[in-house]
Amino acid sequence: MIFNRLWVWVWVAFLVFPVGCADTDREEPARATGSGAGNIIMQKSERDYAVLPENIQWLTNEGDPVFSSEKAKKGGTLHLSISSFPMTFRVVGPDSNGSFRSAILDNQLSLINIHPDTGHILPELATHWAFGDDKKTMYFKLDRDAQWSDKKPVTAWDYVYALEFMRSGHIIAPWYNDYYTKEIETIIVYDDYTIGVRSTKTEPDLHLKLGMGPLPAHYFGQLDEGFVQAYNWKIVPSTGPYEISEFKKGRFVKFRRKQDWWARDKRYQKNRFNVDFVVFDVIRDPNMEWEYFKKGLIDVFSLTIPKYWHQKSDQVLFHNGYIHKIRFFNDMERSAQGIFLNQDKEIFKDRRVCYAFAHAMAIEKVIARVLQNDYFRLPQAFSGYGDYTDYGIKPRLYDIGKVEALMTGAGWKRGNEGIWQKGNDRFSVQITYGSDEHTSRLVVLREEALKAGIDLVLDKLDPTAMFKKILEKKHDAASMGWSTNIRPSYWQGWHSDNAHKPQTNNITNTDDPKLDELIDQYRASLKEEERIRLSKKIQQIIHETGAFVPSFMVPYVRHGFWRWVELPDFHGTRRSDNLFDPFSSTIGGLFWIDRDKKEETLKAMKQGDSFPSITVMDERFKVE
């Protein structure tokens, strides 16, 4: 499983790449009065405006390549699936960081975004931006066309409110409280459509931090201690192209395209987000999902898992051209996919035991035997970040001899069953994971680990239950992955500030003063050369902890899709990790549904007619 990090909330467009996430009626709260958030919701005459500094050099970008197709058609319904229903529609607070969270967040835009091919800044809720001389502040001119889904305008005060909201103890989100207090100093209002966002410290990539998103002040009003329960299933007004229109708990979530969306004709949004509805049906069993796909009840199916690409797709639906296949290479940071060891468990407090565990994991055998050599071995937790990655770090390979030496050196002995023992302790580790598709991989790991004297106990849970257990730090070892950011981000997952406490991303409970010092220096540094040097040092120390066993990376996406779902001629962008993402403001909504072609396909299937079999192999962004 790959889950999104608790990234800084700039409405997690592309600037923060969550990548994390939960699977998805609304009352209008009373307007706020009194103190706190109520101070933000006031009459214009009561508002104080700051004076905009002179000599601001405003920037914009209306010249980068458009990444959409003029062939796109509006209409139709895209049917997708989710493996479990979300525990909440909130995107902050308890139980909010599950795998469906991105579907909600992707429909909330940010001030600016990043072009997926050029890497340049793009306008989103702001039309123009500027950098302050203090290297801590950015200025933004808001798009006066921008609206919430309830037709209220997006104004500067929605950004002021967002800061207050994220600092509120009522949202029960300590990470966000901390971040928005320690990292974002203030929002400055120059008029209703011009703001400044100031960091508490200078930053090397300021635009990646300060391009935050707003919150609808008119909707939330003043928060109180009932926020978590009151907003569990509320549908918050959004700025993006879709909004939840219907749901049934445990069954489905349906999104509706806004027919008069304010940004539909903007340069980088035009000819995108084309389907009228996106329906996520809950299908808990991947095998059942495959059956739904073959019946045309869902339109797209991931073929990344080798058995689907090689064996299961070798059938008439593909041969007759009703369903197409595509393999599309991308060029981007790689997910930290692997096994995370909980160092608060007594057995993993000795690094030698962590190293022995790593040398007992036969990842290469899994790649060869189960994954048909389609996957690649991930070297370390931060691979694919260009100059920021230490490519000299290599994973610990399967080696029973090294396991023997490490365990013996740590005072362990082989027991009667061949399992390592030390006193009353037995080297038995429960490995928690959330997908039946991963069971065959873990079975091989268990078989090979047993030869090395380690008893792996497979702990398969529902994805939501799995993630809850891991965030509560109740696991021994977790087989999963995190999404990525443009730059390596270490504090959330590896700093002791986030160790030994629930609901943080330091799921290994790493607590290393030397590592903390380097992470703090990295976060404070403004010099790229220094940050690169520190980044590589940090990666070395993370490798030395032995708390992460890197497993696989997949530098491409593979999909099966019914022929009525069409892609642009260029198929995707450099950063596309899902060609059929319906919502993401930088890589999503590129496809469309041809309803005439759907009718033609269904008629041909009834009559036994066929079309050319199509498999697309796009290596335009393949990194050799």
Report the C-alpha radius of gyration, rounded: 25 Å
Instruction: Pick out the low-confidence regions.
Output: 1-45
CATH topology of the largest domain: Dipeptide-binding Protein, domain 3
Distance between the termini: 26 Å
Architecture per CATH nomenclature, i.e. the level-2 architecture of the largest domain: Roll
Give the strand content. Answer: 15-25%
Report the CATH superfamily of the largest domain.
Dipeptide-binding Protein, Domain 3
What's the main sheet like? 6 strands, mixed
What general outline do the C-alpha atoms trace? globular
Number of helices: 18
Properties at a glance:
Dipeptide-binding Protein, domain 3; Dipeptide-binding Protein, domain 1; 624 residues; globular; four-stranded mixed beta sheet; 3 domains; alpha+beta
A few lines on this structure:
The protein is an alpha+beta fold. It contains 18 helices and 27 strands.
What is the topological layout?
Elements: E1 2-3, E2 77-82, H1 101-105, E3 112-114, E4 121-123, E5 126-131, E6 137-142, H2 156-167, H3 174-182, E7 184-191, E8 194-199, H4 206-210, H5 217-220, H6 227-230, E9 242-248, E10 252-257, E11 277-282, H7 286-294, E12 300-302, H8 306-312, H9 316-319, E13 323-329, E14 338-341, H10 351-359, H11 363-369, E15 376-377, H12 400-409, E16 413-414, E17 420-422, E18 425-426, E19 428-433, H13 439-451, E20 455-460, H14 463-471, E21 477-482, H15 491-494, H16 513-524, H17 528-545, E22 548-550, E23 552-553, E24 556-562, E25 565-566, E26 592-593, H18 595-607, E27 615-618
Parallel strand pairs: 1-21, 2-11, 13-27, 19-20, 19-21
Antiparallel strand pairs: 3-4, 5-6, 6-8, 7-8, 9-10, 10-11, 12-24, 13-24, 14-21, 14-22, 15-23, 16-17, 17-18, 25-26
Helix pairs in contact: 10-12, 11-13, 16-17
